[in-house]
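User: Could you check the structure of this?
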Amino acid sequence: MDTLFVCNTGISPLALGSIILRPDDTAELLGDLDSEIIGLLQDYLAEDLISITDSDDNPITLAELERYTALDTILNTRHREAPGIRTVTWVDGGSPASLPENGSQDRPFRLIQDALDRIGPATAETVGEEHIVFIASPGGEIGVYDENLVVPNGRKITLCALGGLSLGNGTTTGDILWEPATTGSYGIRPTLNIVSISKFYTRLSTSVESSGWCIKGKLEINNEIACDLNLIGPGSIAGPIDTPTSSAEIWMSSTGVLFESTIAAHESFTATIHLLAAQYCRFASDMLLLKLGRLDVCDIVGDVEFGSMSIAVKPVGLYSCSFGSSLIIKSTATLPMDDVTIYNYKKSGGVYLDGTKVELSSSALNATFLGEVVVPSVSGGEPASECQVDIVDFLGQDIAQSVIGRVLAQTAQYGGELAVNTNVTFSDATSGSILASGSGWVTFSTDASGVFVCEVSNSADEVVYFTVTSAVGAATAGVATPNIRPQLDAAAEWS
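Assistant: Sure, the predicted structure tokens are below.
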């Protein structure tokens, strides 16, 4: 059932779960409401869809309504099926001080905390309700609410900025404290949504308070039970997201938000945040996560430490993301990246750590390298030539580590393993080392600069095509076996 905003000029749906009766003239009796409204109320009462009580929970019949004035009474109603009810509360810091507050659109609260206090902690009767708090932007482009907030326990609450909004920026720090506790949860998963109805940004690098919401302080979450945190911008959080005593998982998603400080990145904190998904976000400082899901088109400036990849989203990983310089990602988990992300990651000079401090090219990252092989042609019956392989990173820049790869000698260009030339053999490495070889192939380990050089011989006069590939199935302790993309097939002629 829709909540009704009732005045002597008509009815309009506003939310779920309550009916507010208020004539335009506050001195006018409710019994003077027009026949359309009276008929609608009679129908709802007859069908037992609503109950009407006074502020002391005393039942009110339709015949008794004329005793109540709008100024003194907000009639409390309850849908017979409590779960799923949605209530709406309005906040406007610019509302005249002389105007009585009741949280309606015409008489909004002037403080956000007053709206949260009106909602209050969940009870067994109200636990299934969803609450939306619309927050106006008084005083021009940016509405400043100089207050700290405490979010009531056990609730599903959405704070919706209707324009530019700044929490804090004056005598208060603008902090939000949310402590979802087992007591009073009634088996319902508490949820906090902070959203904006405003112009959307595809990249965030500076404060966005002029067009969305801006929390000047910190968001502190101390949860005993699993809870959901959803942040939809444009928006920004200047302070950290702290989890000092968090003991249960926090499922977090974000779109279009600038995180100017750390996310749970404190040595005394336990990792409880499950960053399920984020897109068009900028993470300007360090993150400590329990699980990492999927990040799309995000700027990751600080270091990231996480325990495992999420199983709640597919595919997981980083897609079209960019990074700050010398970024460190620390995890024992495999972290998938698309080519754009790998390019940006390696360009930033980041280092991937997996507990044993394997470098960026470790198989845990599955990084992509580029490989080029050169074999000069020989003539006059000489059987031997020189095979030189150069491995570089995805940007074409030199590497400073040993990697494992494979060279194939082919009878046809682009023939790969299906056209191996068995007349060719490899021997006597002068840079790097030969791990294994056979007729038409060699598995090698480069030197510390990504270079491998050896002798190559052919028992026949012919043209041979050489290519460098990944050494699938080959592994040596302490040496990376990356994905290698050949730059070209080199042709050498024996004559």
